[in-house]
Amino acid sequence: MTLENAPESASTNRSLGQVATEFLLSLPPEQRLKAHQEINKFVRWYGESRPLGKLTIPEVANYADQISSSATEASEKLGIIKIFLAYAYKQGLTETNLAPHLKTKKASAKATTTKQHPHRKVVLTTQGYADLKAELAVLKNERPRIAQELYKAAADKDFRENAPLEAAREYQGQLEARIRELESILKTATLVDAPNADTHEVSFGDTVVLRDLVSGEEVNYTLVDASEANPLEGKISIASPMGQALLGRTKGQKVEVKAPAGILHYQIEDIKHQ
Fold first, then answer.
1. In terms of domains, do 20 and 88 share one?
2. % helix / strand / coil in the chain, to the nearest 5?
3. Residue 119 contacts residue 181 (beta carbons within 8 Å)
4. What total of structural domains would you count in the chain?
5. For every one of its 274 residues, what pLDDT tens digit does the chain have, with 9 covering 90 and above?
6. Do 231 and 261 belong to one domain?
7. What does pTM read for this prediction?
8. Which domain holds residue 70?
């Protein structure tokens, strides 16, 4: 991506969540699926409401270190974030092009050998189960289209520089991996019942309305399992710092959330049970 005519000043008020959504919508469908997961991780790391223009070079470099120490495909994963950051700079949303500061470091042998985790119990809300089931149906419907793309791309006998064929194969691999993941989740997931409507505490599946005590901005978060989490849709994992800070709290209470950028201060304005 080239960055000619980059703006001299930038608006630093746009949130990570807003810009990430716009960026993903700007991508072709075949690239959006691949980028969605990595962009979501990046947004979760700093917080959906964090002003994109306030990200600093050391913070971005630190994110790269975290990815490099836990993923063997660090270069590919960071490449997606680099494109996003370059997009933000070109749109005038950051004063500095942060993309070059994402540098891959070689993962240690220990990191790569300890990457696997034991099977974790997945707990889903009723809506979350329905959403994942719908996503699975959409992805399965993609199979004929991808097969057709592969057929067309393979018709080009020059395989040495057949970028469309390589892209189609890569996308097909990602598609099938996600289908297998969703099938496994849906097969083993446990559905939770809606909490007692009389309870006043935040619990799994609840939607919490928060007011930022610094900016006054209101945000809504629904507490879900990590497999269902999607910050761009306001769904956060109960295992995340925000999720842990909210569980068991009541309306009117103030909460502090430790984030990479510092401590965030909120007040619970409302609790909506599913």
1. yes
2. 50, 15, 35
3. no
4. 3
5. 333 344 434 455 788 888 999 998 888 877 787 788 788 878 878 887 888 888 888 888 877 766 543 343 556 677 788 889 988 888 888 888 888 887 765 444 333 333 344 456 788 878 888 888 888 998 899 889 888 888 887 776 655 555 667 777 877 888 888 899 889 888 988 887 655 556 688 988 889 999 989 888 888 999 988 878 877 678 888 888 888 899 999 999 999 988 766 788 999 999 988 6
6. yes
7. 0.47
8. 16-113
